[in-house]
Design goal:
Elements lengths: L8 H20 L14 H7 L14 H10 L3 H15 L7 H11 L4 H6 L4 H11 L3
Helix pairs in contact: 1-3, 1-7, 4-5, 4-7
């Protein structure tokens, strides 16, 4: 199916990769139930046995989710609507033949942050990739 896009398919494929990376880092960063726990240390034991070598500890923060958020927030209205429409097609809300209607509906429903909406989807990367495939992009 031939669709005329403002947002390039290559950019959408890159967003698929970013969404996968963000999803993987979110899964790696916590306990099975998704909640962080407080850790308590026995101060008396640590003072006697802990030797700090004075090296600064490196902070290894994965910025994938933040990068994805910034990329989506940088899209203009037309690009964001096309992205959302493609996700909806991949999710099965619309057929590929209904792309123009999906884009129009995405524009009409865009009340809040598109980035927040999309990143909140647990299967964003899968839906976007399926939408691109359905549109032969």
């Amino acid at each position: 199916m031939a669709v005329n896009l403002t947002l390039s398919p290559a950019t959408m494929r890159m967003l698929v990769q970013k969404a996968r990376a963000a999803s993987a880092s979110a899964l790696d960063g916590g306990y099975d139930d998704g909640r962080d726990r407080e850790i308590e240390f026995d101060v008396d034991t640590l003072q006697d046995t802990h030797a700090h070598d004075g090296l600064a500890e490196e902070e290894t923060e994965d910025l994938s989710a933040e990068e994805l958020r910034e990329l989506i927030e940088d899209l203009n209205v037309d690009e964001a609507a096309e992205l959302v429409a493609t996700v909806w097609i991949g999710r099965g809300d619309y057929e590929a033949d209904d792309f123009d209607q999906a884009v129009e509906d995405a524009r009409d429903r865009a009340l809040g942050s598109t980035a927040k909406y999309l990143i909140g989807m647990p299967l964003l990367a899968d839906h976007l990739e399926a939408g691109l495939d359905a549109l032969d992009l």
